[in-house]
Amino acid sequence: MTDRAGRRRARRIAIGTAVVLALAGMNGPWLYRFGTEKYHQYKINQPEYKAANGKWEIVEFPEEYRQNTIHAALLRTGKVLLVAGSGNNQDNFDAKRYDTRIWDPVKKTIKKVPTPNDLFCTGHTQLANGNLLIAGGTKRYEKLKGDVKKAGGLMLVQNENPDKPITLPAGTKFTGKENGKTFVSKDPVLVPRAEKNFDPETGEFLGNTPGVGRIYVEAQKEGAKYETGTQDNYRVHGLTGDDARNTYGIAEKLALDKKDFQGIRDAYEFDPVAEKYIKVDPMKEARWYPTLTTLSDGKILSVSGLDDIGQLVPGKNEIYDPETKEWEYTDKERQFPTYPALFLMQNGKIFYSGSNAGYGPDDVGREPGVWDVETNKFKKIPGLSDPDLMETSGTVLLPPAQDEKYMVIGGGGVGESPRSSEKTRIVDLKADDPAFVDGPSLDKGTRYPQASVLPNDEVLISGGSEDYRGRSDSNILEARIYDTEKNELRRVADPLVGRNYHSGSILLPDGRVMFFGSDSLFADKANTKPGEFEQRVEIYTPPYLYGDEEQPDLAGGPQTIKRGGSGTFTSQDAASVKKVRLIRPSATTHVTDVDQRSIALDFTTDGDQITLTVPKNKNLVQSGWYMLFVTDGDGTPSKAQWVQVP
Ligand SMILES: [Cu+2]
């Protein structure tokens, strides 16, 4: 800053203060508020303030482009894919109005993309070729108790025949042997054949284990008198001979209680260049709220979700092969709550932080640990504080990824609990016996925190709400930057828009961070008016873009660098570069972003040349497209160059 600019600034501050004092002196409460607000506006726009705290700006799309964005992913074109599907809106769902937008945050253009299915509450992850894999979504909205007219629930269809599977069509009737009540299936179901069991020593035949198919059934007629009290066996209509003898249903109580959302099996790859969804093989299981995580071999693991009858998928996980575009079950089963936070570790195993987003029994798959998908061994990690407040917590792999330290932020009690945690917890997976320790605390208990890794190794943590879905006007209009080296949080400028459930954040290639969504249950503090989905996007410009110096430039260089390989780029500021990072672009929903990671690169400089080397470990540097940032000694990052690691 020049002396003259400094004097100019000092004079402006003096005038601003005088205005506030004059207004305050008039004693009018409205005027006072007007004055403080005006002063606040003035203050947050001062260069010194922005250089220390950054700045927030609301982006409002033209009305016809607004949508209830639930999912967002940064594409390798630098554009952001915004997916609503039906956007948690029953009217949209009933009308089959499914929405997707592509937004260019630099050119400020937005376009509509035809959406082939209800991708509301789907799962997603970045693929090696730059496509985004998207799997699962919504088959049916939840029905609350009182709205459920026909008694219904899960029917387990058993097949005792070891020689063949059996398929029952939609509309199959089941009549209880004890209760005499008849229920009808909503979909076809394939029941696998029974398994023969033999004594491993003698080879003696011990009997059959029936094959089991799961299907949703409901009463033929409305009303409470068709509810059942307890478990019963059910005769299947329309079968004859052996089939009638070998096939039967078992159901627990079939009642008028709340019916959860139901998932779909459909999967797509989104092509960022054609800007289109491409249909691929459907998953084996229907999933609503699944997590997709890249594995060591570049295949994609799909875990958890509610299935096509609204039940937590019973531990059946599956893997997508991007080569064949087909899914296979894993050999062994393990059950997690919905949207579990699962990250690929440098040793090829999976780290589960315990973060998740909202469905599943409170005693299934809640404890954090390290999971070997092949052997299905799971080693628990101790030390987590507020372990019963992990739902809607956020987990972020702290930069640089090489250190393998994760932070778990906030979280709330299971279901609609009003309780929430103000803790951050940190675990160092490179330690001999990893254990969580508390990091610096937030001011308030925080569900749904948004967290984005920044190119200078800091982490931006923003928003969330104290109560479930922002109840009682509990949105938190605060943001902090976490300093990974000092293990400290510092408060920065406040966001302008409250964001809770169905929100997220994404680091953009120019070093800014975009925020989307929020789905308050109520619009008022008294919790009497229904909430409205937050359709505005907000962009945070971190302090590093308000420094005295320009962003370092970065140009030239190869677009593809192999693991273990090097590339030479040009920068006029090469001599001042202190950090070089490859950042995997975010794909985020429901406080779950298992893609984002920032990898430190070794580099050398020579004049205006900067030569960097990509680490060899394929679990650290997963194949795919990355943002390459260089950051100078002041912590100011360049704009990113896109680099593909094949
Ligand atoms: Cu949701």
UniProtKB/TrEMBL annotation:
Q: Which CDD domains match?
A: E_set_GO_C
**Keywords for the protein's UniProt record, in alphabetical order:** Membrane, Transmembrane, Transmembrane helix
Which species is listed as the source? Actinospica acidiphila
Q: Where is the GlxA-like beta barrel domain?
A: 150-254
The highest taxon in the source lineage is Bacteria
Q: Which SUPFAM superfamilies match?
A: E set domains, Galactose oxidase, central domain
Q: What is this protein called?
A: DUF1929 domain-containing protein
Q: Which residues form the Galactose oxidase-like Early set domain?
A: 553-645
Supply the InterPro entries for this chain: Gal_Oxase/kelch_b-propeller, Gal_Oxidase_central_sf, GlxA-like_b-barrel, GO-like_E_set, Ig-like_fold, Ig_E-set, Kelch_2
| TM annotation in the entry | 12-32
